[in-house]
Amino acid sequence: MITHFSDLPRTNAPLANGKGTVDATELLSIPDFLGKGRLFKRCILKPGCSVGGHTHKGDFEVYYILRGEGTYDDNGTLMPITTGDVALCRDGEHHMLENTGTEDLEFIALILFSN
Amino acid sequence: MITHFSDLPRTNAPLANGKGTVDATELLSIPDFLGKGRLFKRCILKPGCSVGGHTHKGDFEVYYILRGEGTYDDNGTLMPITTGDVALCRDGEHHMLENTGTEDLEFIALILFSN
Question: Does the N terminus or the C terminus of chain A have fewer Cβ atoms within 10 A?
Answer without folding.
Answer: C
